[in-house]
Amino acid sequence: MAQRSFARGEPLVLTELPTRDPHADEIRVAVKAIGVNPVDWKMRTMGPLRLAARLIGPPPPVVVGVDFAGVVDAVGARVADLAVGDRVVGGTDFSRGQRGSYADTVYVRPDQVCPIPPEVDLETAGALPVAGVTAWMSLREIGRLDPGERALVLGASGGVGQFAVQIAKRVLGGFVVGVCSGKNAALVASLGADAVLDYEHGDILAQARACGPYQVVIDCVGSYSGAGCRALLARGGRHVIVSGDSAAAIAQLFVPPFSSKAVLARANRERLGHVVRAVAEGKVKVNIAQRFALADAEKAHALSRTGRVAGKLVLLP
Q1: 236 and 144 share a domain?
Q2: Which residue of 44, 65, 70, 273 could cross-link 29, Cys pair, CB 3.0 to 4.6 Å?
């Protein structure tokens, strides 16, 4: 089983590990596509995610990655709702002692995956778990966005942002204001944004005020003023921090009136079902910006770190 792993202070390396039979409550999936997310390289290099992966994750070698789509090739004795040959999409979970998804084979539990309908290809599905579930949780579970209510998406052209714009508009029926650079304005408008604001032209939160107030303000960048975002909220609204692993972002969660929330996506069958169904119905489209071989994962991480990718990066084992 080939997996992309690393040691501290070293680059990713391709490692061969034994392929085993799944435990009784597991499925084994032959991976066909892997979505790249900032959480992948952050687990290598910095902050609470790196620490948590090492304290409660499986023993070395540490294998990064969460997103995957593939085909079930073995099921445990107690698994009744999935079968060999099923196409599934899901996310690995180091808190369950699982290695990451940068591999040709992963072992997960059935509740971590969702069957892929025939309308959705494996590459598209592989890009969905972290970014799609993050957007869904931000808008529906935390933001509680209802039809006709307003959502402001900061970083609307990025991986999470593109999903957030489409889910808010085309799935939940909201009024959506997207913030991005001028060069990506047409893209964000094509996703369904009712208004698009260019952050390169003055104080963006001041510009956004004219379109508010908002039921939910989603900061997909992680660097906007918490106080400024909260000032744009309607009564009972929520400011959601997606890239909230900096000390400054975390501090926003403890400021009255405590309407700032951090989201850490955890893909399960129900959440994935909402996102996959929206893709199958044509309400949400996935923009794959670039594809890499698994052996070139280091290049994908370097590109992801720039913060300038308009869409999703996908690895192909």
Answers
A1: yes
A2: 70
SS3 158: coil
Q: Are residues 138 and 124 in the same domain?
A: no
- The reported pTM is 0.91
Instruction: Say how far apart CA 257 and CA 308 lie, in whole Å.
Output: 33
Pairing of strands 214-219, 150-154: parallel
Average pLDDT of the residues in 185-206? 96
Contact 119, 283 (CB under 8 A): no
Q: What are phi and psi of 124, to 5 degrees?
A: -60, -45
Q: Is residue 279 part of a domain?
A: no
Spatial separation of the C-alpha atoms in residues 204 and 153, rounded to whole Å:
12
What's the total number of domains in the chain?
2
Q: What angle do CA 180, 186, 189 make, to 5 degrees?
A: 80
Is 91 a member of any domain?
yes
Determine how β-strand 105-108 pairs with β-strand 62-63.
unpaired
- Across residues 46-70, what is the average pLDDT? 76
Are residues 141 and 250 part of one domain?
yes
Q: Which two tokens stand for residue 239?
A: 């400011």
Q: 216 and 146 in one domain?
A: yes
The pLDDT tens digits for 236-287 are: 999 999 975 555 566 666 677 778 898 888 899 999 999 999 999 999 999 9
Domain that holds residue 39: 2-128+286-316
Domain membership flag for residue 17: yes
* DSSP structural state of residue 14: E
SS3 content of the chain, % helix, strand, coil (to 5): 35, 25, 40
- The pairing of beta strand 2-6 with beta strand 62-63: antiparallel
Same-domain pairing of 64 and 154:
no
269, part of any domain: no
